[in-house]
Amino acid sequence: MSFFTSLSGLRNAETDLRVIAHNIANAETVGFKKSSAQFADLVATGAPTDPRRTAGIGATVSAITQDFALGPLEQTGRSLDIAIDGDGFFALENPFSGDLSFTRNGNFQLRATGELQDANGNRLQAFPVDAAGVPTSAVPTSVIVPLTNAAGSALANVTIDNRGIVSAAYADGSATPIGQIALATFAATGGLRSIGQTKWQASGDSGPPIFGNPGIGNNGEMISGALERSNVDLAEEMVSLLTAQRNFQANARAIDTATQISTTVINLRQQ
């Protein structure tokens, strides 16, 4: 039994090492959120009713949780970079399936079609606005910047300000607000399902997205020309890595000891 108890510890230590290595590998990934493995003890089924005789049989991974704490904000000076200082996620629509995903990576590009997209072609969602930049709807839609204005002047530049207003500047000197970036929050952020590339999808545990305007209620403020870096603390991860490595080695040693004892017992029986 001690062999299988130590084996469970070995597997858990391996999982812990894998999670920590993933964090370290993404220490420079924009918008990345670190994870941690959570463990729970195991008790044999049909355990004695006397609590003093209840024996444990190892441990198991109970959950791998993500820490959504704010990462460092870094100024880039780029007009289509935007960071969220506080709660909320950018909403992105898959152009093929229409599915929504959510991210803290505010690095966007203007496509030849006038769409604002992330590096994977997902469309940024924003509230429509009037000429004064006031939202006219509570339902976000994809940001599409007209390539020419009503006078026929060509698009010269696109910017995002600290209110999350996407504005288009044209060659004739005119400027037009296009939309205000929508922020999505959730009843239980920890319930979001990671889909990779620093994106998440809503789940039954997180609840549906609640869309709102930047800086209103619990929604974070927008920081124009900035990006949120990974919230991984390398020094902390290195300490965790050493601890997980020691746990792995200790369980491996326990397995060796259990194997030696079993071998000794078998040899005694054969004598």
Shape label: elongated
CA-atom Rg in angstroms: 26 Å
Give the termini separation: 24 Å
DSSP summary, beta strand count: 19
Architecture overview:
This protein has 271 residues and is an alpha+beta fold. The protein folds into two domains: 2-67 and 233-270, no CATH class; 73-228, no CATH class. Helix content is 23%, strand content 32%. The protein has two helices and 19 strands. The chain has helices at residues 2-25, 234-270, and strands spanning 35-43, 56-66, 73-75, 82-85, 89-93, 100-103, 109-110, 116-117, 123-128, 141-142, 155-160, 165-170, 175-181, 183-185, 193-196, 199-201, 210-212, 221-224, 226-228. Strands 5, 6, 9, 10, 11, 12, 13, 14, 15, 16 and 17 form an eleven-stranded antiparallel sheet that branches. Strands 1-2 form a two-stranded antiparallel sheet. Helix 1 (2-25) runs antiparallel to helix 2. The two termini are 24 Å apart. The model has no long low-confidence stretch (mean pLDDT 91).
In short, what is this structure?
The chain is of the alpha+beta class and 271 residues long.
Can you give keywords for this protein?
alpha+beta, elongated, 2 domains, 19 strands, 23% helix, 271 residues, two-stranded antiparallel ribbon, eleven-stranded antiparallel β-sheet
Question: Topology of this structure?
Answer:
Elements: H1 2-25, E1 35-43, E2 56-66, E3 73-75, E4 82-85, E5 89-93, E6 100-103, E7 109-110, E8 116-117, E9 123-128, E10 141-142, E11 155-160, E12 165-170, E13 175-181, E14 183-185, E15 193-196, E16 199-201, E17 210-212, E18 221-224, E19 226-228, H2 234-270
Antiparallel strand pairs: 1-2, 3-19, 4-18, 5-6, 5-9, 5-14, 6-16, 7-8, 9-10, 9-13, 11-12, 12-13, 14-17, 15-16
Helix pairs in contact: 1-2
